[in-house]
Amino acid sequence: MFLDSDLLMSVLRALTPILLAALGGALCERAGVFNIGLEGLMLVGCFTAVSTSWFTGSPWLGVLAAALASAAYSLILAVGAVTLRGDAVVLGVAMNLLAAGLTSFLLRTVFGVQGTFDDPSLAGLPVVGGFTPLTYLSWAAVVVAAVLLSRHVWGLRLRGVGESPDAAATLGVNPARHKYAAVLLSGVLCGLAGAQLALGNVTLFSENMTAGRGWIAVVAVMLGRAVPLGVLLAALLFGVAEAVGFRLQGLGLPQQATDAAPYVVTLGALFITTARRRGRTPRASRGPRTPGTPRSTGSTRSTDPSGVAS
Amino acid sequence: MHRRHRRTLQLTALAAGTVLLATACNAAAKKDGTSASAGGSGKSFTLVTPDSVGENEFLKLAVTGIKDAAKQHDGASKVYESTDTASQQQNVQAAVDAKPDVIVLVGFEFADIVAQQAEKNPKQQFLMVDACTTKTYKNVSCAVFREHEGVYLAGAEAGLLSKSGKVGAVDVLDTPQFRRYSDPFAAGAKKVAAKTGTSTRFVGGQSPFDDSARAKEQANTLLSKGYDQIMAAAAAGNYGVFEAAKAKGAFAYGVDVNQCPSAPGTVVDNVIKRTDVAVDKGIEAVLGGKTGTTVSYGLKEGGISLTGLEAGVDSSKCVIAQHKDVLTKVKALRDQIVSGELTVDDPAAK
Question: How many domains would you assign to chain A?
Fold first, then answer.
């Protein structure tokens, strides 16, 4: 009664927006920019997708506009963190706050409603084989990102920039350009994630509708160690935990207990992965940062959980 | 290092400034939607709303209520529309400064502000609708609703209309207050069809009131188990529940206002709060000297109703308009509750 096809569909529906956003976060992480603005980027994508689909009647234009709008919005992080060398965490938090306020404000001014915009004639994405085309795109994106980061020269340069910008620069690679590209790509992916949520999972916009999915994506990046396949597995873990949590309510477990499912899973996964890593020699201080791994040297900026140093 | 820090600071300031600017724009957007109806020598009433009235039927009814009260007392009424927390505070202050006979406030958002103002202005009478201050004040009267009575009737409709014999509810959180929207639904369905299977799912999660995608998935878990009538009490998540029900050809029930137009053919009926009745009768009580009390409004007082039991059901786009036979039975149940013959258990009172 538990493992039916409905459960699988439910898991995959929950997975898509998180996966797309997390892939964007992973690209940034590999380029050395800690992007915690995924939530805000997604929310901008949700609003743009719904408003564009509403005014043009085409969900596809909505998807395109969402990708472009979120990419434009990600410029805040790109300019702030790369060009001006600001703190990415502060910028990310500001982006999330601004996105929540901005979309609520625009909802009021553009649609004249508060809370939720919903209309039976709002066009959502078509469903092919049970899922929206963006769902299939998200799976393809995992493969593309994996090949890009491990095989393609551009991806290798990106990783080089992330691990040691100075060394990369001496080899003639422009760190700023690569970081900009990574941040803008994360914007595009988050825009697609938002479009999927607002025109795929549901067909409406409501204030703060991302409801923490961007933060789950941030955790998925950390848990998956910013490797595309790892990120996929981490995001899948959250999708399964949530969907199973829903089912547990049906078996009579109280909501407060089933709500804890994703967090229990996170703690369990963190425990297992750190236990496995313990004993290994820590990587060089400038290596890709893996949360949970103590760094051998380096600064102790305790306010910065990611350990993103300049 | 120093330079970097300065840059960081500048950036922080910039970011903070931008956020402030955005919120400031919000506050300045619409301060008072003052609509005064000039009155004679009579009383004056001021209504402060938590949001702009716009198409919000819940607030539109409150405006109707205060206008009716003004007409009856040959007085004047004013409406201050808020748009956010800042303007709520400004509006309450403006209302207090004008010293009307009664200030009416709709929504829990005002609980703290009213408590402060009531203490500072002991001679000013306040009427809170759909909420109350935590402490009781001599000059604060409250009007609350017995939502469970309406939900029970919606449950009865569901019990009569269900083909699978299973009715469910998607609720916001598993707390006694919110169970008012799910437990009576099950009880109502069982009253008319004893064998009805019932189940409730709670949205929960990080932001249970906003997460329509999550509410939709919760509704899907019920639908996939054959539940064909779903009570939607998930705030913004209701639209997600309607989408899920529509996709499976099932039916749903809305709350607070007529939600049928957002999914015609899917939403059967709505449990509505007649804020106009609460405002009108509340003002009456305050003027009559009954202050500092909490009065609850249910089916008997006409404070709670179903769209299907109101005038204009035929143009409501609700499914129930096509089921007059069901409405007849539900009306009989309502009369039993009104007469006290039948009592609906209140989950929040346990």
Answer: 1
Count other Cβ atoms within 10 Å, centred on residue B120: 9
ipTM above 0.85, yes or no: no
State pTM to two decimals: 0.81
Question: In chain A, positions 199-238, which contact chain B (CB-CB < 8 Å)?
Answer: 201-204, 206-209, 211-212, 215
To the nearest whole number, what is the mean pLDDT of chain B? Answer: 87
Task: Give yes or no for A58 touching B (CB within 8 A).
Answer: no
- Whether B201 sits inside 8 A of A250 (CB atoms) is yes
Taking only the tens place, the pLDDT of each residue in A180-229 is 999 999 999 999 999 999 999 999 999 999 988 999 999 999 999 899 99
**d(C-alpha A239, C-alpha A242), whole Å:** 5
From residue B36, how far is each of B76, B79, B341 by CA, in Å?
7, 7, 44
Measured between beta carbons, the chain B residues lying within 8 angstroms of A98 are 15, 18-19, 22
| Residue A70: domain span | 15-211
Which CATH number is B44-145 given? 3.40.50.2300
pLDDT over threshold 50, residue A235: yes
| Angstroms from B72 CA to nearest CA on chain A | 32
CB neighbours (10 Å) of residue B4? 13
B240 contacts chain A (CB < 8 A): yes
B280: Cβ–Cβ under 8 A, 6 or more apart, which residues?
A: B65, B66, B68, B69, B72
Contact B204 A258 (CB under 8 A): yes
